[in-house]
Design a protein that fits this description.
Elements (H helix, E strand, L loop, with lengths): L3 E7 L5 H10 L4 E5 L6 H6 L1 H18 L15 H25 L3 E4 L1 E6 L2 E6 L2 E12 L3 E3 L12 E2 L1 H4 L9 E5 L3 H13 L2 E5 L11 H13 L3 E3 L2 E8 L4 E7 L4 E6 L1 E4 L3 E3 L13 E2 L2 E2 L12 E3 L10 H15 L14 E3 L4 E6 L2 H6 L4 E7 L4 H6 L5 E7 L5 E8 L2 H13 L4 H6 L9 H10 L7
Parallel strand pairs: 1-2, 1-6, 2-3, 6-19, 8-15, 9-10, 9-15, 10-11
Antiparallel strand pairs: 4-5, 5-6, 7-16, 12-13, 13-14, 17-18, 20-21, 21-24, 22-23, 23-24
Helix pairs in contact: 1-8, 3-4, 3-6
Length: about 475
């Protein structure tokens, strides 16, 4: 029957569409329901991809501004916002077209409309005033998340904006911007608009930027932002936000009881994301949730075993690669494959600001809290020939190892191409590599990856080049 499937996925983000492809490869007749006009979800259309396109424009602009340092004399560059956003949109459109091609290749039915569970094995899709009922042996919830709003500063899309709005500022570059939240999203947008020419202030309630990262990495990033004239205010809470004719006026409370005021053209609220789980029929089908997140087991099954949930709608890291891995696991489990439960202690974390930040595994503090006998090695990019060639010498690689058995516990990188360099560390943790195996692995010269090898040497107490 045309409306009967082995799997229906609600949501076509990097979790949903990847799960559908893997299920189709395993012989399951699959369909994906998407409420937006294009497939790809938040990551492709309002998150990872357009943000990284703007970050690439920003970093290229910075490179051109400093081109004279490497012998290239060019006029002072200027931003053409229309072309910036045309480039960004072209990247998004190309990837969206790629998903549609993959659906055709794998014989996946793409269904547009708002999907809702209306029975244990039933999904009703509403589109352009009509409702169509589909049935499936398995259902996968992959509805993602949206920017979290806060009552004290409700988003209006004009003066107080979310990350969605920040991606669509096509008419102007704000003269000044306050970014509330120094996690990955806030830090990346602060980096973008500082390069574009905005006067940026980053406000964070916790004691440091990127609070989940290693403390030394956070400190190094703050130092780098200071050099870029990005003001960072930590241990600072927003107490009041008033929209004015010129922008926004903010009243802030500092950690030790002090107060401050800030005026800016825009306030970007980047305090996290909220799961999209309301109104899709979960409660009616008895599927358990907590604080809006769908409860799942290690195989991504909900309280109804044939209904699975993945990605931002479950309480796991808000990362596209996490959603994709969860989607593959769910698809393989429902297809009867032998699989391992999800574990989250080896999830790479990446922030694409300038300089980039990436990590995997335990921070030094977390390793000590867990009782490990910890040894640490660091290697600065300033001592690396390739970094000097690129003129990006800020940052370092830090390796946290267990001293007795030499297991690599965590790797933390801040510097040029950190988000690419972390892949080697991910493999090392996955195969439970020793630090010695890392430094005895020959690394090509001159490359940035030598910093990983040098940090491994340093963790053993015999750094070669520092």
């Amino acid at each position: 029957m045309a409306n009967e499937f082995d799997l229906i996925v609600i949501g076509s983000g990097p979790g949903g569409y990847v799960a559908a492809i893997r299920a189709a490869q395993l012989g399951l007749r699959s369909a994906v329901v998407e409420k937006d006009p294009k497939f790809g979800g938040t990551c492709l259309h309002r998150g990872c991809i357009p943000t990284k396109a703007l970050l690439h424009t920003a970093s290229t602009l910075d490179e051109i501004r400093n081109a004279a340092d490497i012998g290239i004399d060019v006029p002072q560059p200027a931003i053409n916002l229309q072309k910036v956003h045309a480039y960004k949109n072209q990247v998004v459109a190309k990837n969206a077209g790629g998903i549609e091609f993959l659906f055709r290749k794998n014989k996946i039915a793409g269904i547009h409309g708002f999907g809702r569970l209306t029975g244990p094995n039933e999904v009703t899709v509403e589109h352009e005033g009509a409702a169509t009922v589909y049935t499936a042996r398995n259902i996968l919830i992959a509805t993602g998340s949206v920017p979290r709003d806060i009552p004290i500063a409700p988003v209006d899309g004009q003066r107080i904006i979310s990350s969605d709005h920040a991606l669509e500022l096509t008419d102007r570059i704000p003269k000044s911007m306050v970014v509330l939240g120094a996690g990955a999203v806030g830090t990346e947008f602060a980096s973008i608009y500082a390069s574009f020419g905005s006067e940026v202030t980053l406000v964070e309630m916790l004691p440091r930027m990127l609070p989940i990262e290693d403390e030394e990495v956070s400190a190094e990033l703050r130092k780098a932002f200071r050099k870029r004239r990005i003001k960072v205010m930590t241990e600072t809470a927003l107490k009041e936000a008033n929209v004015t004719e010129a922008g926004v006026s903010l009243r802030l409370e500092k950690g030790r009881g002090g107060e401050a005021t800030l005026d800016a053209e825009l306030l970007l609220v980047a305090v996290g994301r909220a799961p999209v789980s309301a109104g899709i029929g979960l409660e009616e089908q008895g599927i358990k949730t907590e604080r809006g997140y769908v409860e799942v087991n290690g195989f991504m099954q909900t309280s109804l075993p044939h209904v699975y949930a993945i990605g931002d709608v479950v309480n796991t890291p808000w990362l596209a690669h996490v959603a994709s891995s969860e989607g593959i696991l769910a698809a393989e489990h429902m297809a009867g494959q032998e699989v391992r439960e999800m574990t989250y202690d080896r999830v790479p974390s990446c922030t694409y600001c300038t300089p980039e930040v990436a990590s995997v595994g335990l921070t030094e503090a977390a390793a000590r809290e867990k009782g490990y006998d910890v040894a640490v090695g660091k290697f600065p990019f300033s001592a690396l020939a390739k970094a000097a060639i690129l003129r990006h010498t800020e940052g370092f690689v830090k390796i946290v190892r267990e001293a007795k058995y030499d297991e690599v516990l965590g790797v933390h990188i801040i510097g040029a191409h950190a988000t690419d360099l972390i892949a080697e560390a991910c493999v090392a943790l996955q195969i439970e590599s020793t630090t010695e195996e890392l430094f005895r692995t020959m690394h090509a010269h001159p490359t940035l990856s030598e910093a990983v090898m040098e940090a491994a040497h340093a963790a053993y107490g015999h750094s070669i080049h520092s």
